[in-house]
Write a structure and sequence with these properties.
Elements lengths: L2 H16 L3 H14 L4 H13 L3 H14 L4 H13 L4 H14 L4 H13 L3 H14 L4 H13 L3 H14 L4 H13 L3 H14 L4 H13 L3 H14 L4 H13 L3 H15 L2 H11 L5 H4 L5
Length: 302
Amino acid sequence: MGDADVTDLVARGQECLRARRYDESLARYQQAAVRDPGNLAAWDGMGEALFSLARYREGLEATERALTLSPHDAQALSNKGAMLLVLGHRPEEALDWVQRALALDPGNVDARLNRCSVLIALKRHQEALAEAEQVIAAAPDNAAAHEVKATALFGLKRYDEALAAAAEVIARNPQQAAAQLGKARPLMRLKRHDEALAVYDRIIQLDPAGHRGYLGRGSALHGLGRYAEALDAFEQAQHYAPRNHWVASAQFVTLWRSHRYGTALRALWHAWRATGSPGKSESGLAEAVTPRDHALGGGGWG
């Protein structure tokens, strides 16, 4: 296969990536890399596709391969920062990689938005909001920038504005579950549980095998005092994410509020065993037993 064919594969991979057809995009980039192992765009794209598929460690490996081919590739540097953040590395380390990318290419929109995500992780929400608004001013139809703006506003507790920003995201990606999530979270914080419930049901329609819709549905039902239905939703969430400590903690809260104390404690014990990290469940427990039910009533788990 000649260079023109490899170029075509990369172009098709980019097209699929923009259309959010991530599996197809990954296949095209992989084919290009097999035929031309030194093709930087193929490895860059492969990393982005794997990241979008939540295959973060594989995405990081592909991105690091791109950096061996071109150590000063701004896109790869930025992507590495984003992946390190998701994989649990210190936000400061992730920020360093993104800043390296921006030093090489200050106008790189992906790098600017990755910087926003790291700033949010560092709770520097005002800086993230300012950066996102600058990107939106230059590219009003950039859905990712609106999504970052909504997240920053949520972090600033400006929930009505976060709802408006989330509406901009949904208008551009009406079939994307993550876009709907940006609407549900501020609704939960505003204690508009009926509206949040409808949004979480929509998320389940869009992503029936994802745990977040069921977890959020349970949280909204808990806020409405419909504990039995909430527990059913949490069981569904646990089916799709059996080792998720937030699901287990949410079950504990609802069982406790239902005065089913023995069952609640058994659920917490199983959560410790399932996660292999009592500290995580203990943090959920500390949050759970506060009088306001911060995690459920506040929308922190969904």
